[in-house]
Protein backbone atom coordinates (compact mmCIF):
# COMPACT_ATOMS: atom_id res chain seq x y z
CA UNK A 1 0.00 0.00 0.00
CA UNK A 2 0.91 3.64 -0.35
CA UNK A 3 -0.41 6.90 1.03
CA UNK A 4 -0.29 9.97 -1.17
CA UNK A 5 -0.29 13.53 0.11
CA UNK A 6 -0.85 16.41 -2.31
CA UNK A 7 0.13 20.02 -1.79
CA UNK A 8 0.42 23.24 -3.74
CA UNK A 9 -3.14 24.01 -4.76
CA UNK A 10 -4.71 27.42 -4.38
CA UNK A 11 -6.09 30.46 -6.14
CA UNK A 12 -4.24 31.87 -9.12
CA UNK A 13 -5.09 34.45 -11.77
CA UNK A 14 -5.48 33.48 -15.43
CA UNK A 15 -2.09 33.18 -17.07
CA UNK A 16 -0.43 32.36 -13.79
CA UNK A 17 1.44 29.30 -12.58
CA UNK A 18 1.20 26.76 -9.78
CA UNK A 19 3.27 23.77 -8.78
CA UNK A 20 1.59 20.75 -7.28
CA UNK A 21 3.48 18.11 -5.35
CA UNK A 22 2.55 14.57 -4.37
CA UNK A 23 4.55 12.77 -1.71
CA UNK A 24 4.36 8.99 -1.52
CA UNK A 25 4.71 7.07 1.74
CA UNK A 26 6.73 4.33 0.10
CA UNK A 27 9.85 4.27 -1.99
CA UNK A 28 9.15 5.57 -5.45
CA UNK A 29 11.13 2.60 -6.79
CA UNK A 30 8.13 0.39 -5.91
CA UNK A 31 5.77 2.61 -7.90
CA UNK A 32 5.23 1.78 -11.54
CA UNK A 33 3.31 4.90 -12.47
CA UNK A 34 2.43 8.11 -10.71
CA UNK A 35 0.47 11.04 -11.95
CA UNK A 36 -2.37 13.48 -11.73
CA UNK A 37 -6.03 13.50 -12.62
CA UNK A 38 -8.52 16.30 -12.13
CA UNK A 39 -12.22 16.70 -11.63
CA UNK A 40 -14.05 19.93 -12.33
CA UNK A 41 -17.54 20.59 -10.91
CA UNK A 42 -20.12 18.55 -12.76
CA UNK A 43 -17.53 16.66 -14.80
CA UNK A 44 -15.87 13.28 -14.61
CA UNK A 45 -12.38 12.80 -13.31
CA UNK A 46 -9.84 12.65 -16.12
CA UNK A 47 -6.15 12.14 -16.66
CA UNK A 48 -3.88 15.18 -16.64
CA UNK A 49 -0.39 13.67 -16.71
CA UNK A 50 1.39 10.46 -15.76
CA UNK A 51 5.02 9.40 -15.48
CA UNK A 52 6.22 5.81 -15.28
CA UNK A 53 9.27 4.32 -13.59
CA UNK A 54 11.14 4.22 -16.89
CA UNK A 55 10.50 7.91 -17.43
CA UNK A 56 7.72 7.65 -19.98
CA UNK A 57 5.35 10.60 -19.80
CA UNK A 58 1.84 11.11 -21.09
CA UNK A 59 -0.25 14.29 -21.02
CA UNK A 60 -3.83 14.99 -21.84
CA UNK A 61 -4.20 17.10 -24.97
CA UNK A 62 -5.69 19.97 -22.97
CA UNK A 63 -2.49 20.51 -20.95
CA UNK A 64 0.26 19.64 -23.45
CA UNK A 65 2.79 22.43 -23.71
CA UNK A 66 1.58 24.06 -20.49
CA UNK A 67 2.02 21.43 -17.79
CA UNK A 68 5.15 19.48 -16.91
CA UNK A 69 5.29 16.39 -14.72
CA UNK A 70 8.50 15.30 -13.03
CA UNK A 71 9.73 12.81 -10.44
CA UNK A 72 12.07 13.40 -7.51
CA UNK A 73 13.17 9.87 -6.65
CA UNK A 74 15.19 10.98 -3.63
CA UNK A 75 12.07 12.50 -2.03
CA UNK A 76 9.52 9.95 -3.33
CA UNK A 77 7.66 12.88 -4.84
CA UNK A 78 6.05 13.79 -8.14
CA UNK A 79 5.54 17.40 -9.18
CA UNK A 80 3.18 19.01 -11.66
CA UNK A 81 4.28 22.41 -12.90
CA UNK A 82 1.28 24.20 -14.35
CA UNK A 83 1.82 27.29 -16.49
CA UNK A 84 -0.49 29.52 -18.51
CA UNK A 85 -3.42 28.53 -16.36
CA UNK A 86 -6.93 29.33 -17.51
CA UNK A 87 -10.32 29.15 -15.76
CA UNK A 88 -10.89 25.85 -17.55
CA UNK A 89 -8.11 24.35 -15.43
CA UNK A 90 -10.13 24.95 -12.26
CA UNK A 91 -10.63 21.56 -10.61
CA UNK A 92 -9.70 19.32 -7.75
CA UNK A 93 -6.40 17.69 -8.68
CA UNK A 94 -5.81 14.15 -7.45
CA UNK A 95 -2.53 12.31 -7.25
CA UNK A 96 -2.65 8.67 -8.35
CA UNK A 97 -0.18 5.83 -8.04
CA UNK A 98 0.08 2.27 -9.25
CA UNK A 99 2.46 -0.15 -7.57
CA UNK A 100 4.35 -3.04 -9.10
CA UNK A 101 2.41 -6.28 -8.56
CA UNK A 102 -0.70 -4.46 -7.32
CA UNK A 103 -3.80 -3.94 -9.47
CA UNK A 104 -5.29 -1.25 -7.23
CA UNK A 105 -5.30 2.47 -7.97
CA UNK A 106 -4.18 4.58 -5.03
CA UNK A 107 -5.46 8.14 -4.75
CA UNK A 108 -4.65 11.14 -2.67
CA UNK A 109 -7.37 13.27 -1.11
CA UNK A 110 -7.05 15.98 -3.74
CA UNK A 111 -6.02 19.61 -3.81
CA UNK A 112 -8.18 22.41 -5.19
CA UNK A 113 -6.87 24.63 -7.96
CA UNK A 114 -8.94 27.71 -8.73
CA UNK A 115 -8.06 29.94 -11.67
CA UNK A 116 -9.95 33.19 -11.45
CA UNK A 117 -9.43 36.92 -11.65
Summarize this entry quickly.
The chain has 117 residues and is an all-beta fold. It is 0% helix and 52% strand. The strands form two sheets. Strands 2, 4, 5, 6, 9, 10 and 11 form a seven-stranded mixed sheet that branches. It has a four-stranded antiparallel sheet with strand order 1-3-8-7, with no helix packed on it.
Low-confidence stretches: none
- The proportion of residues forming helix, as a percent range, comes to under 10%
String of helices and strands: EEEEEEEEEEE
Number of helices: 0
Estimated share of beta-strand residues: over 45%
Choose one word for the global shape.
Answer: globular
Distance between the termini: 40 Å
Tally the beta strands.
Answer: 11
Based on secondary structure, the structural category is mainly beta
Mean pLDDT: 95
Global Rg: 13 Å
Main pleated sheet: 7 strands, mixed
Amino acid sequence: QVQLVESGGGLVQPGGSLRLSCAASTSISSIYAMGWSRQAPGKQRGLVAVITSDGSINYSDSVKGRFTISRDNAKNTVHLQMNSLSPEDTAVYYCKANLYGDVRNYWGEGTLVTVSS
